[in-house]
């Protein structure tokens, strides 16, 4: 009987380890020691040093498969930014539940004093995964006219809320390209929304140079089709965010 319990324990441990490897990137080469946050040198002359960045997002922004380290943490460590993370895995821009993007943004705003220098928002892949209704772009700019049960309505409500409260630079970003037509449709809707709301769009989905990785780079930089490793955030994603932030002037209210 004792041998049986030991065997069952080994099987359970092996299964748990496999789950940690597949979903959280444990043991992935892209999460190896050279990419550890504490090992990265600080860039003392960074133009972003001292800037406050609030990011609203889900698992990509929180570093789901990289030990909780994402491009945000590298911006804090390397560029000296003050990072405020409103990042919760499996959440949507469509206003579904207590942890939707919009509800978290409103709760965060109630706790903040000074506005951030930059507001970054992730186009959530969960809206595609959980089949949120995409919705349509409203002709209005009034929050009460947006159907926040849809992804587009949620996006417009976020944009209107940030503009009215802080009027700071808004940077929306997409995931890198992966095989999901539903998400592709949301990316295209976001491109259309940029024309209406005039925000900065870091469109990683449509960027051929960004997505033109070699097979070896892709294996190192990605844990799965959606989530980067530490190496991916550091070497692949971080330069994109550093560039777009440096090119965006600070205009927040009360700054």
Number of helices: 10
Overall 3D shape: globular
Give, in order, the helices and strands.
HEHHEHEHHEHEHHH
Determine the mean pLDDT.
92
The parts where pLDDT drops under 50 for at least 5 residues are 12-20
SS content category: alpha/beta
Beta-strand residue fraction = 5-15%
Largest sheet: 5 strands, parallel
Give the distance, in angstroms, between the N- and C-terminal Cα atoms.
69 Å
Helix share, percent: 40-55%
Count of DSSP strands: 5
Taking all Cα atoms into account, the compactness measure Rg is 19 Å
Biggest sheet: strand arrangement: 2-1-3-4-5
Describe this structure in words.
There is one protein chain. It contains ten helices and five strands. It is an alpha/beta fold. A five-stranded parallel sheet has the order 2-1-3-4-5, sandwiched between helices. Helix 3 crosses helix 10, helix 4 runs parallel beside helix 6 and helix 6 packs parallel to helix 7. The longest helix has 23 residues. The chain starts with a helix and ends in a 9-residue tail after the last helix.
């Amino acid at each position: 009987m004792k041998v049986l319990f030991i065997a069952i324990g080994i099987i359970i441990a092996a299964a748990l380890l496999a789950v940690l490897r597949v979903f959280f990137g444990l043991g992935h080469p892209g999460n190896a020691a050279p990419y550890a946050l504490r090992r990265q040198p600080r860039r003392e002359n960074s133009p972003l040093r001292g800037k406050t960045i609030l990011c609203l997002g889900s698992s990509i922004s929180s570093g789901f498969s990289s030990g909780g380290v994402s491009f945000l943490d590298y911006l804090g460590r390397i560029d000296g930014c003050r990072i405020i993370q409103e990042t919760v895995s499996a959440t949507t821009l469509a206003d579904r539940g207590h942890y939707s993007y919009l509800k978290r943004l409103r709760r965060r705003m109630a706790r903040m004093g000074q506005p951030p220098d930059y507001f970054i928002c992730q186009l959530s892949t969960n809206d595609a995964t959980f089949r949120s209704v995409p919705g349509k772009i409203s002709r209005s700019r009034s929050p009460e006219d947006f159907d926040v049960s849809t992804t587009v309505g949620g996006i417009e409500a976020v944009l209107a809320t940030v503009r009215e409260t802080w009027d700071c630079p808004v940077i929306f970003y997409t995931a890198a390209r992966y095989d999901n037509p539903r998400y592709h449709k949301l990316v295209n809707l976001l491109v259309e929304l940029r024309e209406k709301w005039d925000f900065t769009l870091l469109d990683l989905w449509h960027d051929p140079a960004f997505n033109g990785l070699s097979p070896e780079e892709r294996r190192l930089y990605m844990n799965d089709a959606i989530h980067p490793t530490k190496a991916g955030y550091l070497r692949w994603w971080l330069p994109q965010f550093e560039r777009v932030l440096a090119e965006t002037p600070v205009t927040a209210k009360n700054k």
